[in-house]
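Students often ask why we bother encoding 3D structure as a string. The short answer is that it lets us treat folding as translation between two languages. Here is a chain of 237 residues written in the first language.
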Amino acid sequence: MNMTQAPRFKLTVSKGKFLLAALMLSGCQTEPKSNAELLASHDYRYQHPIVISEAPETLDLPVGKNTRNLRSPVTDTITAFAMDSRRSGSGKVEILVPTGAANESAVHSVVRDVRGALGRGGVSGSNVTTRTYRSNDPSADAPIRLSYARMKATTGECGAWPKNIGGGVGENTSYQNFGCATQSNLAAMVANSSDLITPRAITPSDQNRRAVVIEKYRLGETTAGTFTEGVGAEVSE
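And here it is in the second language, the structure alphabet:
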């Protein structure tokens, strides 16, 4: 064997090992996320989305142990709740009566008043069901709960703090609980949850008013309504 070829053979083996190791290391590396991708994945609308689903709408009625009938304004509140169940739900209301509580005899006495107030709100007796729930504290006055199902906009529970946001070196992103309260408040304030999905249809324009404005425009008259500054306004001394 020609001894001058030996170093060349060893050099070729070293290159092969180096290339193989480089390929293995490159396969273990992950491409870092860009700033746009990192911010998008930590957006509060992504971490705390508003979900529209069927959820119970409830009303708790406090009943004392010596109460034997309900009067206004409690009955008026029940009537308004019944009207809401017809407008926002299916018109079916469930009455949950506590058992094992200190006011158990009282709540059974006022169920008839509750049904009467629901009837005045437009909910018939066939759409009212009654069932019981167990009170955890026998010495407490447990409330009567009214409930009906409706489509509601909700978010998850807030208050998650899995990481310490006050120390350490981390990514320049929002913390876990950021924006949760804002999303929850927005979901609670929306009267019609379908408005979060799609805008409402536009009502037809006033044809009579349009004809008046066009006619004034043709005659060269002012098309806007007249307004005199200061008329009807009062300023206190």
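Translate back mentally: The two ends are 117 Å apart (CA to CA). Keep this in mind for the problem set.
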